[in-house]
């Protein structure tokens, strides 16, 4: 059979072409397999001998990571955890690299406040097969196994536990602990709070112990001095409990006699009740009722209503995303008008108010923005009771119904200290900032007596330098306007504290330990400076500014001077006294109180008497459109006294007692010392 040469050559060419195509397909498949890990992880693979040398790679493919399972990462996503690791799917398994990955993960958790986070060794596995390595591990983020409470001699344990931002079964976070301590310290019936976490090796969980110092919650007050004081004041008799039956509720009953020179004494009976947690939620209730004596008979609640109800859902924790409030109130009070320091008119003022608001927060614990809506109704009526001469008094009767928005921003930071305001308790001094802007509009469409707009800016900022210098500044600007600005108010106050001048330390006295043992005498020095101002524009006849003892100018009558604008500078040196002498005074006073209350209680009473010697100087100015500001016309005083506290009693307990020497009394022939005293004054 004859064979054509060209046919043979053609057949050989066909076989060669098929062979070349087959080789090209195999190279393509191998190239795709080599690129597969790069596509799966999205990471650039480092060249290794196993991948460079194909024959070696096929032999060592058992060292390639084929699977990586991560469990227990409830607080962070798997992508965040994988980003911390060098070991990943399609990488070459290396035990030392995986160990370094575990360290990186635990360091990451601890930097974010997960102090007890760790890798659970018992749950780790490394499984090696012919086709590769299969890895898995579990993260224990620090689960809380148990919580115990001590020091709560009166407060029920569940009342303390409900204030914590964590419970058994939650993950322990350091920021939750710090904020929980602040929440506990804000309670009027708790003097100190400390939360101590520990790792329990046996149970592989976190054990938390909460230690608090309960304060004596039942207290009374008796203030008879205004009855014999020609300047007048309030005769006070009250009983209150800041921790009723250990529940955290507040109850108060008080009698007040309002005594004013040349006026008939008015009598009030008030009762108040606060529930911090309605139905174990974060909603709170605060309500007060008042009855007033008219002539010789008590008015009924319906005839002369005085009350307020506040239903509030505060931003309990910085993790809360919203807050809300609803307030309804009606109050009757006396409004007095002064001209050149002489009382000219007395008005009976009736104020009715309703307010509702809701806020939404954005951000983290340190920085937050928030926005909200609010609606408000205010009705004011004035009745002239008595007049003593001509004056410019013309208080306006208003019906204002407005709606508006709130925009705010805050930077949250605190510094823990003592003897800033309170005396003995741990205090959280605010070193951050907060600014709020309100704008509202009132219209006859929803019942307002006219159309007008209202804008207000408030702000507070704290600052500290080291452990000694602290400062806080607050500002409040408000204005009402229609087609023009009609009324405006400006309030500003800044305070500076140079704490512990002699560097004696903040442990001279603590609520939980009492006085330290440091010799017969022990001193802690603080210097305070404060500047305050209030200015009104366009309020002539409707409202006025006063300057006197009620605004901080010690040694003068409560409303000695009147005007439209005021400035006040106060300087004070405080020397806190400690040592064995004052420890014995405190112990002796506690023994006396315990003896008196022995029929009613079984445990000893500690009152925590802390005393501070003070020396001060006050300088103020007040003026208006008729009396312009003059630097040569100050209203000033100097003096000395005691500033003290019963630090083991619930609630505000600061008291002041001293002598003030007014230096600018009209018709004064020399220094005329005046006794002054006050309760719950924080300056």
Structural class: alpha+beta
Largest sheet: 21 strands, antiparallel
Total count of helical runs of at least 4 residues? 8
Strand content: over 45%
Give the CA-CA distance, first to last residue.
Answer: 125 Å
Shape descriptor: globular
Helicity range of the residues?
A: 10-25%
The average pLDDT value, as a whole number, equals 86
Low-confidence parts lasting 5 or more residues at pLDDT below 50? 1-6, 20-56
DSSP strand count: 33
The gyration radius over C-alpha positions equals 36 Å
Task: Give the SSE map.
Layout: H1 5-41, H2 49-52, H3 54-59, E1 65-71, H4 78-82, H5 95-111, E2 118-129, E3 132-140, E4 144-150, H6 157-161, H7 174-185, E5 190-200, E6 205-214, E7 218-223, E8 233-241, E9 250-259, E10 266-275, E11 284-294, E12 297-298, E13 307-313, E14 322-339, E15 342-363, E16 367-387, E17 398-411, E18 414-417, E19 427-430, E20 433-442, E21 452-465, E22 469-481, E23 485-499, E24 509-510, E25 514-515, E26 522-537, E27 545-547, E28 561-563, E29 565-578, H8 580-596, E30 609-623, E31 635-646, E32 654-662, E33 674-679
Parallel strand pairs: 1-3, 4-6
Antiparallel strand pairs: 2-3, 5-6, 7-8, 8-9, 9-10, 10-11, 11-12, 11-13, 13-14, 14-15, 15-16, 16-17, 17-20, 18-19, 20-21, 21-22, 22-23, 23-26, 24-25, 26-29, 27-28, 29-30, 30-31, 31-32, 32-33
């Amino acid at each position: 059979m004859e064979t054509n040469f060209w046919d043979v050559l053609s057949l050989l060419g066909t076989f060669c072409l098929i062979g070349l195509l087959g080789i090209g397909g195999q190279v393509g498949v191998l190239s795709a397999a080599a690129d597969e890990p790069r596509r799966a992880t999205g990471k650039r693979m480092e060249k290794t001998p196993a991948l460079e040398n194909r024959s070696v790679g096929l032999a060592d493919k058992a060292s390639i990571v084929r699977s990586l399972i991560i469990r227990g990462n409830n607080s962070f996503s798997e992508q965040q955890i994988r980003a911390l690791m060098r070991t990943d799917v399609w990488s070459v398994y290396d035990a030392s690299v995986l160990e370094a990955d575990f360290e990186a993960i635990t360091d990451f958790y601890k930097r974010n406040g997960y102090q007890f986070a760790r890798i659970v060794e018992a749950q780790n596995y490394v499984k090696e097969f012919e086709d590769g390595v299969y890895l898995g591990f579990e993260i224990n983020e620090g689960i809380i196994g148990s919580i115990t409470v001590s020091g709560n001699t009166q407060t029920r344990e569940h009342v303390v536990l409900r204030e914590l931002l964590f419970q058994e079964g939650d993950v322990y976070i350091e920021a939750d602990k710090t904020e929980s301590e602040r929440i506990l310290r804000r309670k009027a019936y708790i003097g100190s709070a400390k939360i101590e976490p520990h790792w329990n090796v046996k149970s592989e969980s976190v054990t938390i112990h909460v230690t608090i110092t309960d304060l004596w919650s039942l207290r009374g007050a008796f203030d008879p001095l205004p009855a014999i004081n020609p300047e007048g004041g309030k005769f006070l008799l009250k009983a209150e409990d800041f921790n009723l039956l250990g529940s955290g509720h507040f109850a108060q009953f008080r009698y007040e006699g309002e005594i004013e020179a040349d006026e008939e004494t008015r009598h009030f009976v008030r009762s108040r009740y606060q529930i911090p947690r309605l139905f174990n939620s974060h909603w709170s209730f605060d309500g007060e009722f008042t009855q007033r004596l008219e002539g010789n008979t008590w008015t009924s609640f319906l005839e002369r209503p005085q009350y307020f109800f506040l239903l509030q859902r505060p931003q309990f924790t910085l993790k809360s995303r919203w807050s809300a409030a609803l307030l309804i109130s009606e109050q009757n009070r006396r409004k007095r008008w002064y001209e050149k320091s002489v009382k000219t008119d007395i008005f009976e003022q009736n104020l009715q108010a309703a307010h509702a608001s809701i806020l939404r927060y954005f951000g983290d614990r340190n920085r937050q923005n928030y926005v909200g809506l609010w609606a408000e109704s205010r009705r004011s009526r004035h009745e002239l009771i008595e007049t003593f001469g001509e004056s410019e008094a013309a208080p306006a009767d208003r019906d204002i119904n407005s709606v508006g928005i709130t925009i705010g921003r805050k930077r949250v930071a605190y510094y823990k200290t003592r003897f800033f305001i309170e005396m003995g308790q741990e205090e959280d001094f605010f070193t951050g900032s907060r600014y709020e802007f309100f704008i509202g509009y009132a219209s006859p469409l929803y019942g307002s007596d006219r159309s007008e707009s209202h804008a207000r800016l408030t702000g507070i900022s704290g600052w500290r330098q080291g452990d000694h210098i602290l400062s806080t500044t607050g500002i409040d600007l408000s204005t009402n306007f229609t087609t023009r600005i009609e009324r405006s108010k400006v309030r500003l106050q800044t305070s500076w504290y140079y704490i512990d001048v002699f560097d004696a330390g903040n442990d001279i006295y603590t609520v939980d330990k009492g006085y330290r043992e440091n010799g017969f005498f022990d001193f802690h020095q603080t210097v305070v400076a404060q500047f305050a101002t209030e200015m009104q524009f366009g309020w002539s006849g409707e409202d006025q500014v006063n300057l006197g003892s009620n605004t901080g100018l010690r040694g003068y009558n409560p409303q000695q001077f009147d005007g439209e604008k005021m400035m006040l500078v106060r300087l004070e040196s405080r020397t806190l006294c400690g040592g064995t002498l004052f420890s014995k005074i405190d112990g002796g006073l506690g023994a006396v109180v315990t003896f008196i209350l022995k029929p009613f209680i079984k445990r000893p009473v500690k009152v925590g008497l802390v005393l501070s010697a003070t020396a001060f100087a006050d300088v103020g100015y007040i003026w208006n459109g008729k009396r312009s500001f003059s630097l040569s016309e100050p209203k000033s005083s100097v003096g000395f006294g005691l500033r003290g506290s019963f630090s083991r009693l619930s609630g505000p307990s600061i008291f002041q007692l001293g002598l003030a020497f007014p230096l600018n009394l009209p018709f004064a022939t020399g220094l005329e010392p005046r006794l002054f005293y006050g309760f719950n004054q924080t300056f």
